[in-house]
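User: Here's a chain of 488 residues. Predict its fold as tokens.
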Amino acid sequence: MAAAIAYFYRSGSTLYSGDAEAHLNIARRIIDSRTPGWSQIGTTWLPLPHLLMIPLVHNDFMWRTGLAGAIVSGISMTVAAAFLFAAVHRIFRSAAAAGAAAAVFLLNPNTLYLGSVPMTEPTFFAALFALLYFTIRFGETGGWGALIGAGLAGFAGALTRYEAWFLLPFAAVYFLIRGRGRRWTSFVIFCVIAGAAPALWLAHNRWYFGDPLYFYRGPYSALAIQGKMNYPGRGDWRAAAQYFFAAGKLVAGWPALLVGGAGVLIALFRRAFWPLTFLALPPIFYVWSIHSSGTPIFVPTLWPHSWYNIRYALAFLPLIALGTAAMVTLPPPRFEKPAAIAVAVIVLLPFLIHPNDRAIVFQEADVNSRARREWISEAAAFLGTSAGPHETFFTSFGELTAIYRTLGIPLRETLTGDNDVEWAAAVARPDLFLFTDWAVVTGGDTAQGVIDKAWLHGPRYELARRFTARGAPAVEIYRRIPIEANPY
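Assistant: Prediction complete.
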């Protein structure tokens, strides 16, 4: 993972993904804001990945380059591969099979990319495979350590991504079934430890936003962003499965789907029922999300031939890795090592034949960020020569924050919607409470409306520069007019 992190850092693509930029900056604003603290965690994205970044994002260089988040992702993906190896080793009692599973998962270029940028998937995979390992270990030993380990893994996963919430009831039922003489005790202990994470998040949303389900139905939720707009798969199970499978084919490749599919049948024959069920749950969750939760996936091979959320299809890889491991167990034990190498090479063949082809998840980030990268660069270049030290900015938190990160401007020198009372006062009465030196806005956002409103009664801002990029809203930078220069 270190080599992959270095590669994407040197190519300047660590923060191509808008989500990666947002995760990094959320972590930074917890410690660097006009109102730092827990409230800066926000609502839509779960908090654990951002909390893990804090020790590194405190360093200005690590924040500006994105390495603070990349290192956390790289460590998480390494932990994920280690737990996958350990789990598969327990399932098939074969180090060669376990090595093949870990290689198929970790050496996929899409995994390497996501493990090199500030995204939440690496932390989720670490929790997913840890939960798989500890449940398998509990099924064999019934030990308290495995039970508590599973609870902590479920807790971590449920504070990372919402698909972990979907997994928890199934894991709880597993403990109820496999708990032997203390099944109810095991069930309750797991539910208390792992279930504390969703409970804490519901309480957080209730306390800060007045609605325990604000993350699900608030203005920043996936449902609100998608709105009532139709898309392929919404309300259509067949299309939902089709689009998810198409994304999976692009992420894993046909050889992986064929080998993994055949291996799943072998794993069924070897009675690996729980691992197969458990690893099939994330793909089921995503098909369900496409169908019912306003979460589309767009692939370039299907209408509308665009790129959106393709990375969700990485949920296929754990099941493919398990199937690959099962294939390794077919020959006699003395041939398992050559079989592991051969099967792993076959699964990774498309990426070995075309090593210069970029991972589809990287391509998505690249294509969707071109306009954003253009205006970030132009806006940062302008402010870098125009804004003085310690000058302040009225702006929106989001994509615009990349400008301040690029320049190394502390977020405490920005006034955004996450600054609670001070922001609300400036929005309601800019004539009394808006004092920033600059305003950086995008057309139609709240900050733009406030600047227009302020022109009537002050303070007044003049347009200093306007940037446009194809496929993106215009970005406007306003400079505050000194009182002595104001002719009105």
